[in-house]
Amino acid sequence: QADMLADDWRIIERIETMGWDDALEAVKAGAAVRRKGWEDDSWVAILEEPAELKGKICKVCPDTGDIVPDWKPEGEDLKAGDWHIVEV
């Protein structure tokens, strides 16, 4: 019981991968996600904040500033189990 009530839990390293449904929930909670299977690992999927994109998922490249607004995963991205949370 002490462990359940403790407030000193920490994530030391997160290497967990997930399917798209869990990745989508992470994005809705404010995380950036990426597929390990993407050839270009500079792209991430995030929930965009500007008013014109509010609540839409965008695929962005923080290195170049490129953005694919209102991005929707399809095909391999939806079936993949190699999504993971990244820091941007």
Describe the structure.
- This protein is of the alpha+beta class and 88 residues long.
- The chain has three helices and five strands; from the N terminus they run ααββββαβ.
- The strands form two sheets. Strands 2-3-4 form a three-stranded antiparallel β-sheet, with no helix packed on it. The protein has a two-stranded antiparallel ribbon with strand order 1-5.
- The longest helix has 9 residues, at 20-28.
- It is globular, with a radius of gyration of 15 Å.
- The relative contact order is 0.25.
Can you tag this structure with a few keywords?
single chain, 88 residues, alpha+beta, three-stranded antiparallel sheet, two-stranded antiparallel ribbon, 5 strands
- Counted by DSSP, the helix tally is 3
SSE-based structural type: alpha+beta
Report the portion of residues in β strands. 15-25%
Report how far the terminal alpha carbons are from each other: 36 Å
Mean pLDDT value: 82
Helical content band: 10-25%
- As laid out across the biggest beta sheet, the strand order is 2-3-4
Note the run of SSEs as H and E.
HHEEEEHE
Shape: globular
Number of strands: 5
